[in-house]
Amino acid sequence: MSTETETFNWKEWVFTTDHKRIGVLYLIGSMAAFAVAGVMALLIRIEQSTLGPTIIEDGTTYNEWLYFHGAAMILAFLIPGLTGFAANYFLPLMIGAKDVAFPRINAFSIWLFYAAIVLALVSIVIPDSPDIMWTGYPPYSITTNANTAFYVFTVHLLGFSSILGAVNFLVTVIYMRAPGMGWNQLNIFVWTTVAAFAIQLVFIPVLAAAVTMLLFDKYLGTHFFDPAEGGDVLLYQNLFWFYSHPAVYVIFLPAVGILFEVVASMAKNRVFNYKACVYGGILGIVIITGEVWVHHLYVAGMPDWLRIGQMVTTLLISVPVGLIVLSLWGTLYKASITYNVAMLYAAACFFLVLVGGLTGIPLALTVVTVHLSETSFVHAHFHFIMALFAAFAMFSGIYYWFPKMTGRSADGKLAVFSFWSNVIGVNVTFWPLFIIGVEGMPRRYWDYEMFPHFEPYHQVATAGAFLIAIGMAGTMINWIIAARSGEKVGENPWKSKSLEWTHCPSPPGPGNFPEDVVVSEDWTPYDYNK
Amino acid sequence: MTTDSSSGVHEHHWETSWSPFAVVIGIFFLVVLTFSAHYVYENTLLTIVCAGIGTPFLLAGIAKWVHEGLTEKPLISGVAGVGLPIFIISEVFIFLALFVTYWVMRLSAPEWPPEGTPHINTALPIIMTIILVSSSWTAHVAEEKAEANDLAGFRTWIWYTIILGTLFFGCTAYEYNHLLSEGFGPSTNAFSTIFYTITGFHASHVLIGLGAFFAVLIPAYKGMTNHTLTTCVSVYWHFVDVVWFFVLSQIYFW
Fold first, then answer.
1. Does B141 fall in a domain?
2. Which ipTM value was assigned to this complex?
3. Taking the model in full, what pTM does it have?
């Protein structure tokens, strides 16, 4: 059945309950958020390119950019891009299901997400645009004249959307796997998505409660975070990071899951140490993730004994992460690797995760982090591990699954050119920030007149940001062109063994599979070594 | 796929439903924009307009959604009975966050209850407990009637549950009214902050539960019930009941 002969029917998109179309809607929405938040990043870099005011006259506008850049990149691009787009489109295909367990709830989730995007975009143009970072720390978020309510509701809408997504996907994986598919036969991406949703289910409500208290404090006059009246200002930071640190793994896990799919297909190799990766690595992260958040408060105030405990748990979580990364590297062992664009992005991720992961270790050590806290070293660290790694993994996935979604390949000269522009750009941008961070450059300052000797480093970083901008624009243009006129490549161009490639057409129609899928006991999605 | 479409029964087409879209529009206007219009921009006309747009969308969306749930055959049936408990895990954590906040504030306070707290009547919450536990029981009986295909009995016992739930909600309203008249409002002190937040959040769950009972009651007059849906509403109501015991012991009797 060819979808190309169908005429475009807007109702079949707006009112759709099909997981693939919802996935595409997530992709469009998250890429729109990415584009706007990316422009903010560029403005931030331009402002930093010279000492003193460059393109704005005061810090408030800068704070508004930081707010939107952070909130949109994390909450509206990375999380919905990975657990919304990738999980929606490919998880049901990977387990041989016709759709998710609750298709209408899935449609509900996507429009909650769009409501949040609309609210976030509206909050840029209103006169009292939020200026409270993505963290919304009190007391500033309560005393500011800006509209904290829109921040709170953006979090509420996205959180509700994700919680319902979690319910939906957990039930889907438990009950809708193809007959014969056991737990040890699932794609790693399925496992990582399940883990990410399990984390979302438990931790988002705590963030929702925290921002609700913020809302009440600001608009109803309650005293949750007001020490003068018996409230506790650090309570917010604790509740906030209780979700927002695990959120890092909500992003990391599906991202690394995508890399496993790409790497196994391009290396034509089994996943190295599958069980250690799943039960030690992925589930290990789920178990430890709730005991790590306090390291975000190292300098905000806590007893010394707690610092030591938090150092231990923070370092401990690198063990399951290490198991996962080890499996990822091991999957390349003795393989003949196909270096297409998806694999190029995956290879870049091997480097990004190394830089981002290793720079996290000094930040976990209390003696070092007291010095590094709130410097651009932290800023560069989490951009490597969270922003760049996850975004590159998502791009890798988009190139990998592009033929599945469109029937066409997106690989080409523009794809390769924009890849190199991106990968060089991110390194040019963030390495200088590591260097000046160690020397004391503070994060979040719109002006740094007290540190004039850092100006050249900022200029290099800004130049890198323009390289990224060129790369990202090239990538987007490439996808749009390829979706319309890319080379047709058939149903399984990568010769993958995973169900989404072997059992359904490209792109899949309603109901996904022409025939019901049944798998045998010795089937695995990585069955390359027989 | 050609074999399917020739039979006509399994013809493949893109599934659609406008109900989720309508519910989102409803929530966006009725909750997000109405709150912002009233508390942030303090504009009464805008508040009324936003609530006026949101309410019909929300109600129509829910009605359509329930109707589809009762009439259409799902891809896989009965799993909502698992989905709802998973959702409740998330509810547990939101209540836990509120209680932890309460414990932190209370245990770090030099005196408790803080200055400005009037005497809070503990007889009323006992009565409310009896009402809510009874309603959990009537909800359970209604569920059994539905399983025995006794539709008239089902409707009757759902009505009992709704009446008891409304009574409970009325008690909360009475209590709030009384305390507010004594000058104990949300902004009075640390205890009032947590008191109104936790009891109010619980009461909002009672309201959602009542809405859910109406959502199963109204179709039941047309002879439509669904075992899974009834179970879900009932389980949710039991959960609201269990949470009440934590509210009772922590807020009123500690």
1. yes
2. 0.94
3. 0.95
